[in-house]
Each structure stands twice: as structure tokens, then as C-alpha cells.
Write a structure and sequence with these properties.
The chain is an alpha/beta fold. The protein contains 15 helices and 8 strands. An 8-stranded parallel sheet has the order 1-2-3-4-5-6-7-8. α4 packs parallel to α6, α6 packs across α7 and α7 runs parallel beside α8. The two termini are 16 Å apart.
Length: 310
Amino acid sequence: MHLHLEGSIRPAIASVLAARHGVALAEEEVRRRYSYTDFAGFLDAFKWVTSFVRDPKDFGLIAADLAEQLLEQKVVYAEVTLSVGVMFLRQQQPEANFAAILKATEPFEKRGLRLNWIFDAVRQFGAEAAMRVVQAARRCSSRRIVAFGIGGDELSLPAAEFRGVYERAEEYGFHRLMHAGEIGGPEKIREAIEILGVERVGHGIAAIRDVGLMETLAERKIPLEICPGSNLRTGALGVQLGKSSATMEEHPLAEIVRRGVAVTIATDDPAMFHTSLEEEYRNAWRIGLTEEEMGEVVENGFRYAFGEIR
């Protein structure tokens, strides 16, 4: 399940975090900030709201709230992305933050929720910063850290600059993924799988523009983590369709599935995109997946998981 911890910060929780650090912040202000129409606007909102996440207690609060949300949706397993690259930018200690997250989510294990974690770097911060994220994951020495990934602006730096980073992540035993083909073209997906050897691709909707690429993804069983609501709200869907605006019904999810590409349905940043996993499955139905296809997509969430589900 493609899900960012920091992107799950609901308006009420954002207000609590701000108050903890001496900032008066109304929920209405958060909702206003969470309204945007393109990818750049989303990045600005993400930077703004995460500026209130400053110490381990903050991360523990967010993690516990996310776990409660997931249980309410009857989720039993999730691999959650943690923006460690942003922690370093803000001169935080990832090890301390992660320890607080594990402690805060431990009680939810008894209630039937299994959480594993992906340490995430920011593409535009460069390879050296990404390597720090890999090293932090190793220092944490936790079986709950199942993968290393890179998100952020896929148009900022070429994939080749991160070859050594992904090689080190593989050496340390981490699975590897990358956001690609969200606002970039199909070549960004090809670079991720051919140069970096990623095992899953975040978003990847640009694959619809390259039949050969979809055949490669299907043959190699490299799944795409597709987040329909996010694709619509960031404008990524419009970019891939070559339109100034697009509708959910135009999303290429169904065609990608019918080309034999493995797909999982996910939320990306649920609070910031005003969505949930339940809502994303409703979106998949609107896009045109059949009942049989929906069942296959649900199974893929378990089939292509990086960590132990139980």
C-alpha cells in the first residue's frame, strides 16, 4: 500500500502539532492549504504541514492516528513511507523518530494491524542526501524497515545519479522502489527499472503511453502502486493524457490492468488528497474495473508486499 505517514496528517492533528510548538492554527487554515490543483502546489503544502512535525512525540502522534484510521478501514497490512530525507533537511534524528513511531503503533498489532516501513529520500535533494537515508535505515536495524525509496520531483535529477545509492540499499538487504511516471514520461519508469533495478514503481501511470513498457512490466512482474485520487488532484492525470484537466473516469488504470501489468491500489497522501483506501477502491470501480479485476488488485497488495504480513 503506497502511503506516506506525513501525508496522513489530518487538519485536526495538524492544529494539535502546531499548538505544541506555540503556533495557533485553525483547522480551516489547514483545509485551505490542502486545496491545490497541481504537483507544485502539493509539494508546497507538504513542506508547510511537515514544518510542524519537529520531534519524536509528534511522529508518535501521527503514527497512532494513522493506525487508527487504517483499522477503521479494516486494513490488516500496510507498508508506510517515512520521509526520512525531510527529517535530515530539518536536522532531526531519524532513529529517535522511528523509535517513537514503533512504540506508538505497537498496541495496534494486538488489534490486527501489521505495519512495515519504507525509508524515503527526496530526489531533488541529490544522491548524497539519499545515501544518508539508506545509512539511517541500516542504523535503525529493524526488520520493520523493508525498503528504500525515492519520491519528490522526478524531473529534477536523472536516475543514473542514484545508481550507487540503490546498489548500497540492495547490499544492505532493502527492497527498492521509486516514484516514476507520475508527471514524468514513460522513460522515467524505464530508467528506474533498468538503471536502478527497482522492484515496484510508485504511480507509473505514464506507462499507458508505451505499450512496450507495459509488456516489460508485465513480463518482469514489476507492480505499479496507483493512487487515482492523487493523480487527479495533483494534475498528473491531465499531464499524462495531454489535457489541461481530466476526470476520474479517464484514468488509465483499467487499461493498464488489462495489459497484464500488476497493479496495487493505494492512497499516496490520504489527508492531503481528501481520500482513503476505501475511496480509492470506489474510484477504481468508477474507472471501470470489473469485480474480478478488483479482486486481483486486492490480492496484489499481499502478493507484492515486501515484508512479512504475519
